[in-house]
Amino acid sequence: MLTPSCNIQAIPVAPGIAIGRVMRIGETPREQPEPVVLAPEMAEPELARFHSALEKTGTQLAGLSDKLKQKLQDDEAGIFDAHILILEDQLLISEVEKGIKQDHFSAEYAVFATIEKFSAVFNGVNDEYLKERALDLRDVGNRILDNLSGVDVAKIAYNEPRIIIASNLTPSETVGLEREFVLGFATETGSATSHTAILARSLKLPAVVGVPKELLDKLTIADKLIVDGFSGKLIVNPDRHTEEAYLLKQREEQKFYFSLNEENNLPPETSDGFRLQLAANLDADQDYNEVKQTAAYGVGLFRTEFIFMDPNQLPDEERQYNIYKKLLVAAGNAPVTIRTIDVGGDKLNTAILRSTEQNPFLGLRGIRLCLREQRELFATQLRALLRAGVHGDLRVMLPMVSSIFEVKETKEIIAKLQQDLAKEGVPCVEKLKLGVMIETPVAAIIAQQLAPEVDFFSIGTNDLIQYTMAVDRSNERVAYLYRPTHPAILHLIRNTVEAAREYNLYVSVCGQMAESVMYTPLLLGLGVHELSMPTASIPVQRRMVRSLERLACEELVQKALQCSNATEVQELVRAMVEKCAPEMLER
Ligand code: PEP
Ligand code: MG
Questions:
Q1: How far apart are CA 347 and CA 305, in angstroms?
Q2: N or C: which end of the chain has fewer CB within 10 A?
Q3: What is the mean pLDDT of each run of 10 residues along the chain (587 residues)?
């Protein structure tokens, strides 16, 4: 039965319109099967049903694993291999058989009870890795249950592109999705700067977060959704009139983006001749061709932690060297900024970060983790980078810096690695361009002291805003306090730019603020040199820069710095955009 039509306001986190049916991923709310006790003679047919469901599940998982391997050609596909191992686990199979033969339970109840029992054991251990295995176990259990009830999971999942719904999507779940079968996302938790939203934008998929749990739990595979990633509207089972209106809007959007792409050969210059470089934030499995197509100024942020997401297989030096080299060679003379591993916060890797923390965003994240607990892993990455750097214009940057000692210590490690490589006769970069991310308030405040130690700054506004405003960037409940236009943020950026100016350093902005056209007048007026963003946003940002005058933006910033709150600044910006680029107001 279809969920009754409704229309709710969620939080938009990735632009675009998606229309399609639902696919739920992650932990599926599932009703507990009745503990039906059957007549003893029913045990044999129930066992046969169970084994046939096992066989069917095995075939589906093998098919999914093959499909993913063809597509990804690397270890991400391993997730389904792990599921196959669970499915073949003899302990699990005999426990279900016992439930059917000895306790005379239905196959459904025996499977359910066994999965519950095993996952409770995993969940009871204070270890993130085992807790994740409990999720895998439930996933496999749910597939067997679906097959017992005759629902064809593989068909549901992959017969047509769908809108993914979930309570929470982890970055690794998002990375693992089959892209051509995903139209968009609607989740309960998250925010514009949670890593899942960042991935959604780089995949060019519309997404909303903050969808009430009660609604998500009701939705089934038969329900149709419209996800409006511009306004945040989520429409369940729209009437024909609404759907047609949205289809029209979708086509208009496509036309708008098509017209923008035709401007890719124009320089991103303001009307008074200032060039604001537009660089790309690239993901591990994105092709450099996307950067070329949008005529971006190289790569402003390559988040390497996404190649470290599989806890079962961390990339060694050679594998990393090949990934970095491939990117640098493809970029030719264009700069490529590679960020060292930023595990921690919401990007968890249980093999690197084994203990759980009360406040992971304030914990051993990024450079802290590398220097305190993962020096070997860090050194391996730096060695791979130093070697790959001879193939192009490499810049390396450090995430989550909050102390000058972190920079000095890293420089010592780099110097030692350079000596080792020279001794081994391995070609490597002699003068590595090293930068820090300015994403903690302390880094922005001591920018003057950091500047002489490095070659560039890159402002990570996602974290800078989170830490300055004391607002968890992935918590939709406090999203209303997460305000990029707050004067406090502008003061910190201004301080960073002024310090950089004194030492002649290049300043980039690579957080979400850099991709939203409503913040461009502020960043331009504050004096940054580069905005780095998902390739999908580059054409629209180019049009925006070309509509603005730098001098006017500088004047705007002077006024904004005097404001007392984010709304006042937002209104100033809005007035300017209304005048210079009204077509951008809804974007
Ligand atoms: C940022 O914090 O703005 C940033 C670019 O880094 P990440 O989003 O990966 O934390
Ligand atoms: Mg960050």
A1: 8
A2: N
A3: 84 90 72 78 89 87 68 53 82 91 89 87 71 73 80 54 86 68 90 75 86 89 91 93 93 87 92 97 83 94 87 88 96 97 79 78 94 96 98 98 98 98 97 98 98 98 97 88 97 98 98 94 98 92 97 98 98 96 82
Contact in structure between 478 and 210 (CB atoms under 8 Å): no
Bridge partners, residue 338, by sequence: 302, 396
DSSP assignment of 513-570, as one string?
A: GGT-GGGHHHHHHHT-SEEEEEGGGHHHHHHHHHH--HHHHHHHHHHHHH-SSHHHHH
pTM: 0.72
Residue nearest to atom 6 of ligand 1 (CA): 460
Taking the CB of residue 552, how many other CB atoms lie within 10 A of it?
18
Rounded Cα distance, 303 and 135, in Å: 26
3-class secondary-structure state, position 183: strand
Q: Which residue's C-alpha comes closest to atom 4 of ligand 1?
A: 460
For residues 163 and 184, is the Cβ–Cβ distance under 8 A? yes
Query: Taking the C-alpha atoms of 52, 55, 57 and 62 in order, what is their torsion angle to the nearest 10 degrees?
Result: -160
| Cβ(250)–Cβ(17) below 8 Å | yes
Burial level of 149, CB count in 10 A (0-12/13-18/19+)?
exposed
Ligand 1 contact via 463 beta carbon (within 6 Å): yes
Question: Whose structure tokens read 């998606």?
Answer: 18
Question: H-helix or E-strand containing 381?
Answer: helix 375-388
Go through the domains of the chain in sequence order and give each one's CATH number: 6-25+156-240 (3.50.30.10), 40-149 (1.10.274.10), 270-584 (3.20.20.60)
Our mutation pick for probing the ligand 1 site, out of 299, 302, 309, 437, counting the most ligand atoms within 8 A of Cβ, is: 437
Give the CA diameter of the chain: 86
Q: Which atom of ligand 1 is nearest to the CA of 512?
A: 3
Question: What is the position in ligand 1's atom list of the atom closest to the CA of 281?
Answer: 5
Residue 16, by phi and psi: left (phi above 0), alpha (psi -120 to 50) or beta?
A: left
Verify whether ligand 1 is closer than 6 Å to residue 171 (CB atom): no
C-alpha neighbours within 13 Å on the C-beta side of residue 504: 0
Distance in Å, CA 499 to ligand 2 centroid: 20
Phi, psi of 401 (to 5 degrees): -70, 130
Q: Please name the amino acid found at residue 269.
A: E
Tell me, in angstroms, the distance from the centre of ligand 2 to residue 402's CA: 12
